[in-house]
Amino acid sequence: xxxxxPRTSHETSAATPGEAPAAASAPAITVDDVxxxxxMLSGVSRVTAMEGSRYLAGLVGAPVHLKCENxxxxxxxxxxxxxxxxxxxxxxxxxxxxxxxSAGNHAQGVALxxxxxxxxxxxxxxxxxxxxxxxxxxxxxxxxxxxGQVVDETLxxxxxxxxxxxxxxxxxxxxxxxxxGQGTVGLEILEQCPEVRTVVxxxxxxGLAAGLALAVKALRPDVRIVGVQAAGAACYPPSxxxxxxxxxxxxxxxxxxxxxxxxGEVTFGMVEELVDEVRTVTEDQLSSALLLxxxxxxxxxxxxxxSPVAALLADPESFEGPVVAVLSGxxxxxxxxxxxxxxxxxxxxxxLSLRLRLTDRPGALAAxxxxxxxxxxxxxxxGHVRTDPQLGLTEVEVELHMETKGPAHCEEVRAALxxxxxxxxx
Length: 426
Hints:
Layout: H1 31-40, E1 50-52, H2 54-60, E2 64-68, H3 78-87, H4 91-96, E3 98-101, H5 105-116, E4 121-125, H6 131-139, E5 143-146, H7 151-165, E6 168-169, H8 176-182, H9 184-192, E7 198-202, H10 207-219, E8 224-230, H11 236-242, H12 265-274, E9 277-281, H13 283-295, H14 303-314, E10 323-327, H15 334-347, E11 351-359, H16 364-374, E12 378-385, E13 395-403, H17 407-419, E14 424-425
Parallel strand pairs: 2-10, 3-4, 3-6, 4-5, 7-8, 7-10, 8-9
Antiparallel strand pairs: 1-2, 11-13, 11-14, 12-13
Helix pairs in contact: 1-8, 3-5, 3-8, 5-6, 8-10, 9-10, 10-12, 13-14, 13-15
């Protein structure tokens, strides 16, 4: 787990395709910008619920609240920034339409925001984007174009479309209006939990973390802001160490909502100045956090949205309470959810896979299953291998997938099988 102590920030800004580069002296975003965004979003975005978590509170030793942006319109916080950005366009820009590139949440946020404002939207998505996300983006009113195998190729296609057509490119995080819109989450947190001492938020490009930190620190500078990245896609730790945005390669994480290879120019300076610490979490920790949200909080949360909970589970005693963890989104593909839940159960000792050899004769499998029945293991799947050259003529290898009650129960299952004479491999 990586940590960061902020240094002095330097103001930077990013150009948007089809627009002139912002001047280096462009005015910084202020809490008044966030307040104005909050007024603009009245009746558009939801004031999402703040739910207490007794389980996490028991680990931390202080109250823990979950800010449920997974219950926001379109299933994530993205509608906030997208609406503010598009609402701020001139009449001529609106007439030209908007374009975005995204594998999911930003796509849906832009599609709905544009529809609400009567603006034509085109969204480029990777060819392999989950079908539910593609369908939802179309249903919110966007024209969806599938292009590229990775987001970088999709982004390039969207930028080329902006140059060719004059459509305004809506960046997913690196624009003042986007950041101001996302910052409204921070205003809601202070209103709903005025006694908060620590806010934990996932970081991808940094739009949510930057906006939230701006709003919270302006009104409550004593509140600690902790950012969380997936270890397999953590661009902020090396960037903060270098004092500038640094690109990283080989991104690998299930948390596609925070899978970003380079911080934004605008967001980097704000995160560097306002976020007190950036931590990383593993894939196992993300899986366990998602499973906990589902089982204990009864909330469907995507891996990126579960990242703050993963950080709390990894080192609960390091957080001063009351703590607010931002569940940034709930748009998870059902097939991915199935794999994640199985992975989370395995990481939590709730799922056990074993291989063992049996004599290939009638009743052998039933006898082995009888042993498992005695120790109350729930067998989910049984596979047979008879053609492995390493097997004897009268042997069969059986692969078992079982649901268990935790690490201690896993050991009980292994011990029972060994005591019954079976050689167990994993």
